[in-house]
Amino acid sequence: MGPPYFSSFSTASPANWLGFKEKQKRRSYGDHDIFPQAARGMFSSLPSTFKKHLMKPQNKVDFEILQDVPAWLRSLRLHKYTDVFEGMVWQDIIKMNDEELVQKGISALGARRKMLKHFELIKQELQNKNKDK
Predict the structure, then answer these.
(1) Burial 7-25 (b: 16+ CB within 10 A, else e)
(2) Is residue 85 classed exposed, middle or buried when 0-12, 13-18 and 19+ CB atoms within 10 A define those classes?
(3) Most CB atoms within 10 A, among 17, 31, 119, 128?
(4) Per-residue pLDDT tens for 45-96?
(5) Which residue pairs from 79-88 have beta carbons closer than 8 angstroms and sit at least 24 positions apart in sequence?
(6) Cα separation of 114 and 110, whole Å?
(7) Long-range contacts of residues 85-94, Cβ cutoff 8 Å, at least 24 apart
(8) What's the mean pLDDT in 86-113?
């Protein structure tokens, strides 16, 4: 007899736990097909500046995407805060500190930390650009 949760009243077995649709979702895609077709299709509708940003290393700043604040926030996966920065330019946004972000309504600590980290990265990149000139 099996474990207590597999009583004689139950015909369930681990092999039958997943339904047909779940089994299909979990199928392997092989080495050549990293993403399912639906996931690959979603990238085709992205703006070209956003696609370029996805391909760049994350420690480099793409000043093109900074011109489009909503696209920049999307690239950081912080697009839910797009309304908070409406009407602002990136030069003003990166000057904000933690208290100002809280006052703007960004209460999530993780989101603020991520923003502040990227603000510092942009400031450093600007300093490096100015040194090179």
Answers:
(1) eeeeeeeeeeeeeeeeeee
(2) buried
(3) 119
(4) 666 655 555 554 456 788 899 999 999 999 999 999 999 999 999 999 999 9
(5) 81/106, 81/111, 81/115
(6) 6
(7) 90/66, 90/122, 93/69, 93/119, 94/119, 94/122, 94/123
(8) 96
Q: Which amino acid is at 33?
A: D
List the structure tokens of 67: 């011109």
The pTM of this model reads: 0.56
pLDDT score of 33: 43
pLDDT of 132 higher than 70: yes
SS (H, E, C) 17-86: CCCHHHHHHCCCCCCCCCCCHHHHHHHHHCCHHHHHHHHCCCCCCCHHHHCCHHHHHHHCCCHHHCHHHC
Q: Is 65 exposed, middle or buried (0-12, 13-18, 19+ CB in 10 A)?
A: buried
Distance, in Å, from the CA atom of 11 to the CA atom of 46, rounded to the nearest integer, reads: 48
Q: How confident is the model at residue 42 (pLDDT cuts 50, 70, 90)?
A: low
Cα separation, 5 vs 90, in Å, equals 58
